[in-house]
Write a structure and sequence with these properties.
Helix content: 25-40%
Oligomer: single chain
Strand content: 5-15%
Structural class: alpha/beta
Bound molecules: benzoyl-formic acid
Largest sheet: 8 strands, parallel, barrel
Radius of gyration: 24 Å
Amino acid sequence: MSTTGQNSKLISAQTVAEHNSRESCWIIVSGKIYDVTDFMDDHPGGSKIILKYAGKDATVEYDRIHPPDALSTHLAPEKFLGLVDPKTIIKVEAQMSEEDKARAQRKSSLPPLSEILNLHDFEAIARLVMHERTWAYYSSAADDEISTRENHAAYHRIWFRPRILRDVSTVDWSTTILGQPSSMPVYISATALGKLAHPDGELNLTRAAGNHGVIQMVPTMASFTFDEIVDATKQGQAQFLQLYVNKDRNITKKLVQHAEKRGIKGIFVTVDTPQLGRRERDMRMRFANQDPTEVPQNTPQDRERVQKAANVVNSFIDPALNWNDIPWFQSITKVPIVLKGVQCWEDAFEAYDRGLAGVVLSNHGGRQLEFARSGIEMLVEVTQHFKQKRGITFPNDKFQLFVDGGVRRATDVIKAVALGATAVGLGRPFLYASAYGQPGVERAMQILHDEFEMNMRLLGARTIKDLVPEMVDASSIHSHIVAVPDDRLYSANYESMQHARLREL
Ligand code: 173
């Protein structure tokens, strides 16, 4: 399916401008005219933004978010109507709102990277300089945002039992993940729409990862194409692929087999997203930016539209995915397959018994099921059950455990590794660092390296192998109410949710 076929019919910009409503909506992207009337309610970013550009040229906004092939992948060929007649285009100067100007001003006074001392700093800066819609999308989480805060708080319930008088003049925290060397037990977890953070989006992550020997998990919903991201790697740089499984299994099969050909070293199938969680701060931001004439009314049509928008991800992600699909995955690729979003020992056993390469214990950054437990708490449960019921201990090369969510410090990673994780995923922190572009992401990685070096020494751990369960006290991990000092840096970054407000008349 492709809309990039030969359709060289010329249409005037004035004709396009007549199709400026929900009933008939055309847009121009890179000189091409598309009919998006039927598609707009399936658009993951909502119909509102499409209607804003109805009858107009949406190229700049489109490029800010999407990979070049998004339209050709998601629209039927007949929706590509032709080319805009260049003689008919009237240029309109882009207008900057007061908020845009203020943001640009803040962006011009970023502190130098040398003053960024930890990953919380990146988050605080990102909140000031990212577009408010970007911040709302990245930082929001499900419902009352309790799981997302628990993700970080759970690490506060684990304390260290260091060993002394070991020669720690040299310490080494490098490791291997699914057989691939990694300079630290950390990988870049997949996050959608990287271009919202910076024009170079995911490529900042790819290039920084290449320079620091870190593995990047390439997201299905990236804002560059898969090939653009792979093309940005260095010789020998390993990458994983995060996979949303499409209803049309041929699309998924093609992606997986193409990824294998391009040298992807692990496939992380996301299993916690049969429907997207409700991220109310993100939803609220969309309403706040809404044209009052477009505010959904309580009519059956509008209710259906809102419901459809909430479930829109269903057109890209198959909610029918189930355990019986696993042999099919194993038949289409030889790349190790890991399930991302496993949340209890029963499912971890199931994954093990079906010959998968591992699981990511994760609640999707708290963005899916509210009151899903933190990955680090699940890790304690999973390793205990494997030991007691199967006599299996971790880390284990045959079946690897990963954790993500809430990780901001090397000490967090070290706790997870001591408890049996092979490596830990960080998503948001690297996105926030990418507000500074590639140098920001590199600085974030360097900060983690510096924290690893010092903490390995202070713990008496010369290598990753010295990080054993006896080095931590996780006995309070399942107690969700424990008085520990507040993490001021982290808490100050947390932005409270808001209630609905009366509309301004
Ligand atoms: O967490 C997310 O926002 C996410 O996983 C997603 C899924 C589909 C489209 C965009 C983002």
